[in-house]
Amino acid sequence: MGTRKLRSLELSFAPAITSTGIFRVAVSCCYLSVLHLVDCIAIESVEWLEYLGRYGSLGELVLKDCDGISQYDLLKFGPGWRKLQRFEFEINGTYWLSERPDPSYVVGYPSSYDICCDNLKDLRLAHIVTKPEIGLRFLLGKCKALETLYLEYVIGLNEDEVISLFQRCCNLKTISLRLMPLRCEDHWFRTALTDDSLEALALSCPMLQVVELTFTFCEPSYPTEIGFTQKGILTLIQSCPIRALVLNGASIFDDEGMKGLSSTQFLEKLDLVDCCSVSDAGMYLIAQAPCLSHLTLRKCSSVTDDGLAALARSQKLESLTVIGCRRISQEGVQGAAKSVCYSSETESHNSLKGMNVYRKIRQSP
């Protein structure tokens, strides 16, 4: 590197960069505090990560689609976890087929995971498989200071561990839970988390302001595939000062739920995505929400121009975004808010749900 004072390095699709190059950066740049590696396919060993853990001062580490770095490799970061404040790990494609067991795992001897991450404030785990014998699960049992948490399509979540996490992280302000139904220990086919998790959030996280609940591959005709209930969601929203709410694929949430939202005192921004049970009646009700100023509707098939007319009459909205709602016309959104964005284009499932199942394998030039 040209300078030893480098503090931040972000590499995205750098197929010529190898582990050797990153190790040289780690050794040479003693002030490095931010490292992002995205789609760096030639990084196959993690001696650099071990070095940074022992001698570096990383406060932010983001790893996405680096095929040569596994979850248990991250254990080699060791004492570096104590300094880390932000961590992201993401795998795309058919990630549920690719994870290998941790060779260092021994049942009954969790010493490999006895790592401190008390200063971690921002955690995002996306598209990974987590099991007792696979490394990153230990994070959920160690964090105490989280303010932002994203758990996106993590296979193998244990609800008791998640509830314990919520109970420890009383400073949590933002949470995103993206879930899909899987076979659970009770033999039900549903999402891993239930109303028990929402209750723990409501009781333990009084500073919570931003919530996203996304459900994919949940069939509306089988509402029990979603572990949450409408009552559980409303209890959370009414217990915390929620200012921004995203409900995506929440077929269990209907106009009665919108009635509950209409009385919330803090809600300023609401995104309804693929919420097939919310109709025009829900629009009439949400127009009464005292602080709501920003509304997004995407693929809400039961809302029509009549529902938006109620919003137009209320004259409360600063902005309105409507995408892919087949019963809402461009004429219907006019006057519903000061700023309007409209598109009739249908979004792909991956776009709606924040997934990338069909990851393209890039070839180096």
TrEMBL record:
Which organism is this entry from?
A: Aegilops tauschii subsp. strangulata
| Full protein name | F-box/LRR-repeat protein 15-like leucin rich repeat domain-containing protein
User: Which first-to-last residue range defines the signal peptide?
Assistant: none
What's any one GO cellular component for it? Answer: SCF ubiquitin ligase complex
Q: What is the lineage of its organism?
A: Eukaryota, Viridiplantae, Streptophyta, Embryophyta, Tracheophyta
Its GO biological process terms?
SCF-dependent proteasomal ubiquitin-dependent protein catabolic process
Give the F-box/LRR-repeat protein 15-like leucin rich repeat domain ranges: 241-334
